[in-house]
Amino acid sequence: MSQEPDAETHEREVRRNRRRKNFPKANDANIRVVCNEIADDLSKNWRFKLHVGGLVVGSFVALVAAIAGIVGWSVSATLTRERQTFEDNAKKEIGTAKEAIERRIAIEFEKENVQKTVELAAAAEAERLLAKTVDPRIQQFEKILNEASSEAERRAKDLKEVVKRTEEDASSIESLRGELARLKQRNDLTALADTAISNGDVTAYRQLEAIVASNDGKENKAAALSELFRVYNAYSLFSGVKRTAAISVDAHAINPKKNKEEDLDADDLLPLLKEEKTPLFRVKIGELLAPKLKQGSFKTAEILADALRTETSLEGFKVIGALLSQVTNHPADGKLDKRELLKWCTENRDQLRKADTDATPTPTPSPVASATSSPN
């Protein structure tokens, strides 16, 4: 579907046709005359001449530069090709000459005199190289080895010193350990003696005796013997130690007819040796019995021996043992637990019975009230 031109387009077309109608034609005589006049005026104008001259010169220079560029490029390309060709030919010639020289050298080296010359030269060069490069390296290596050897010797010496000090320290430690062990053994022995002395402990006393009788080292045995002597001195009858000063006996509780402990007789006191459970109170009873016992009394000896067999205190062994020795007229020397005296009584029981000094049988004591102890 065609569209009609708009008003503006139509107006432009009208103006264009109008100018075409008004433009003069080239074959018109008037036009030629006018053109000649204009040309004549322009030829006389110097500014126009300069302008036209400048245009001509610029065009010429541009033309020359173009020609020179073309020619220069052509010359440069030609030179580059010629140089490459020359280099290629030179490389070929050099390669050919090198191959020829190498072949010639190989041929020459096959000759005996040349080989000897080369060997001599190589030997001389080898010596020079050894003297120049290898020998200094060897000397440097030897220096390093010597320094390392010296360092190793120094370290070995230091190690020996350390080992020696270690051995000495170990010996000192071992000696110290031995001293500590001996000190501990001695302390253990002292502790046993202290227990025996302070508490009247029969078990501790017998342990010391067992150590003395054993083969447990001369030094240990001597230490135990010295501690045992200390226990003996503590429980000797002549030690002067009295451990019952704070113990008193309630005589009225034992015998209602008596009020003082001095009034109690042997019949009142003997049964208490087995009835009383307190060691020091048994010792007190023994001390009260000492001036009232009858020597040679078989019944008294039997009661005292029975009391010793069940005694648990060294102080009780000392006092009751002394009473039994007094009645039987047999020494109470020897062991603190009076085992020798008890053994003798057992072995001589029949003889003691025959030598009984009691005119008539002693009546069996009636049960009595348990005695009590109280401090003075």
Task: Explain what you see.
With 376 residues, the chain is mostly helical. Among the domains are: 199-234, no CATH class; 251-354, no CATH class. It has 14 helices and no strands. The longest helix is centred in the middle third of the chain and has 88 residues, at 112-199.
Task: For this entry, give a set of tags.
376 residues, single chain, 74% helix, elongated, disordered C terminus, 14 helices, mainly alpha
Structural class: mainly alpha
Mean pLDDT across the residues is 77
Shape: elongated
Q: Calculate the terminal CA-CA distance, rounded to whole Å.
A: 159 Å
β-strand percent reads under 5%
Ranges where pLDDT stays below 50 over 5 or more residues in a row are 362-376
What fraction, in percent, of the residue positions are helical? over 70%
Number of E-type strands: 0
From the alpha-carbon coordinates, what is the Rg to the nearest angstrom? 74 Å
Task: List the secondary-structure elements in sequence, H or E.
Answer: HHHHHHHHHHHHHH
How many H/I helical runs?
Answer: 14
User: Largest beta sheet, briefly?
Assistant: none
Q: How is the secondary structure organized here?
A:
Blueprint lengths: L6 H16 L6 H16 L1 H64 L2 H88 L2 H12 L4 H17 L16 H4 L11 H4 L2 H4 L3 H11 L8 H12 L4 H15 L10 H9 L1 H6 L22
Helix pairs in contact: 4-5, 4-6, 5-6, 10-12, 11-12
